[in-house]
Amino acid sequence: MNNTRLLMLGAVVLVVLVAGYLLLSNKSTNQAGTQNPNPTQAQTQTEEQNKEASVNVTATGFEPQSLTVSVDTNVVWTNSSGEVTNVSSDNHPTHLRFPFLNLGNFDNGTTVSVVFDKAGTYAYHNHLHPEQTGTVMVK
After folding, report:
1. What are the boundaries of each domain within the chain?
2. Residue 20 half-sphere exposure, CB side, CA atoms within 13 Å?
3. pLDDT of residue 37
4. Cα–Cα dist 95/102, whole Å
5. Residues 71/95, Cβ–Cβ less than 8 Å
6. Of 5, 48, 58, 125, which residue is least crowded by CB atoms under 10 Å?
7. pLDDT in the model for residue 96
8. What is the dotted CATH code of the domain comprising 52-138?
């Protein structure tokens, strides 16, 4: 009878220890999950906050000539044309279609940029060479 009690007491102690271990193990996993429940999602949000696209202005025009970006993307034009260049909204020569896109003249080796905060199709050109055109499509 003493052996039976001792065996039962040992089993109860073992069950309590295993249950305690499992509870503590699960609690620490949940705490880690609370700090960063989805690291992939957090990384994606950071990337989306830093959205940027580039257009190179060359002697022959814009590269790429057509660009598709998502809302709140910063588009940066880099002048690699070897001379002063210009980014202006269509229609030439009034530039009234998208006034925020009238970025003006900028020297070779420099950049200008604008954040597109609304969906739409935005046409622009190089005012100094109006045959050089480009489009930003924002989705």
Report:
1. 2-37, 52-138
2. 6
3. 41
4. 7
5. no
6. 5
7. 85
8. 2.60.40.420
Measured CA distances, 24 to 12, 14, 41, 50, 54 (Å): 18, 15, 27, 39, 50
Residues with Cβ within 8 Å of 3's Cβ and at least 6 positions away in sequence, in order, are none
Please state whether beta strands 85-89 and 104-106 pair in parallel, antiparallel, or not at all (unpaired).
Answer: antiparallel
Sequence-distant (6+) residues with CB within 8 A of 89 are 95, 96, 97, 98, 99, 100, 101, 102, 122, 123, 124
Nearest to 57, CA basis, from 83, 21, 27, 26 = 83
Hey, what are 64's tokens? 């790429």
Spell out where the chain has E strands. Answer: 52-58, 61-63, 66-69, 73-79, 85-89, 104-106, 111-116, 120-126, 129-138
Q: What are residue 132's phi and psi, to 5 degrees?
A: -85, 110
Q: Can you say how many angstroms the Cα of residue 18 is from the centroid of all Cα atoms in its chain?
A: 46
Which pair of structure tokens corresponds to residue 92? 């030439």
**CB 53, CB 76: distance < 8 Å:** yes
The pLDDT tens digits for 39-77 are 333 333 334 456 999 999 999 999 999 999 999 999 999
Torsion 71-76-81-86 (CA) sign: positive
